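DM from R.C. (forwarded with permission)

"hey, sorry to bug you on a friday — could you get me a structure for this? deadline for the figure draft is monday and I only need the backbone to look sensible"
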Amino acid sequence: MSEDGVNDVTTLSLVRPRGAVTLRAGDVRRDERLVPHLVRFVRVLASWRRGFSSWLRVSVSKPLPSALLIAFALPAFAADYPTKPIRMVVAQAAGGNADLVARAVAAKMGDALKQQVVVDNRPGGAGVIGAETVARAAPDGYTILLASSAFGVNPSLQKNLPYDPIDGFSPITLVATAPNLLVVHPALPVRTVKELIELARARPGQLNFGSSGSGGSPHLAGELFKHLTRVDMVHVPYKGAAPAIVDLVAGNIQLSFASMPSAIGQVRSGKLRGIAVTSSKRSAAVPDLPTVAESGVPDFETAAWQGLFAPARTPAAVVTVLNREAARAVQAPDVRERLAVEGGEPVGNSPAEFAAYVKREIARWSTVVKATGMRAG
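My reply, with the result:
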């Protein structure tokens, strides 16, 4: 006991499954003003350091010396993050639009962070496999997800998702958006949206529209078009955008609401005919094509998007670093140019803005799925 009746030993107990680790600092001058700071530090330490249990107990009779606090605080706040390569899981196959966007952004982020950002393609289940991989990963900032539009519709389209689309992730940023391109085989006798609607009504159930898979933006755009125009067309899902376009060029299907990157080259070469874009305004990539809405289908608007997520409970400081560098990456002149050529528009918004965007997408497509009776597969 010291002269003021307080023990000369400060004890900090961190309770873990295998017992407590005790730190002791003796003969330190009492300063009760530091106690609240120590308590806050311990709370942060518990949420940041892997291997700790879900709760901790703090027993403080005197504050630890400031030098000891700093020594423990530096790793807790991840001042030097990242210290190893980051894995960017892409929930689509290599060569697709999301993969191209991911690789462009990953390269820029890696240069800025001085650590490699490795793209890991995990396609399947309309993006569910990749999303589950990240949802189950450690929330330390070393595994992130690049998801696409299907992320917003899967909660309504698929039952029993193996993750919570809202609480299972920490949104980082909306990377980019791009309209879909309504394209038809040149043999189809239509050149406008109005003519397509008239033909579909005259031949109910005889026109097939292909997509890159159930739940993807081409599928969603097609179902929304059917719902708003009251036409009967058959959805043909493919395992990716490339095989859908191959079959459309071959004439095995009649049309598609294809992703811009997958179809724009075929339109420019004359192998496919562009009819309209699905966004609310015309695209600079194909300025002569009208929007579906201005072509006589009011309220029609849909776009493909890609966004970055981290696992839930990833420290806010780490999310801030990832958000900053991803936003800078998409605004880099060469990345902007690459996106623009394929009809994409860079975004790079805040985590809060992206979180709100995802919630709106989930609510919006829930309404469409219920109205159209869409099903996975």
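R.C.: lifesaver. Residues 86-178+304-372 form a domain with the D-Maltodextrin-Binding Protein; domain 2 fold (CATH 3.40.190.150).
me: no worries. The longest helix spans residues 351-372.
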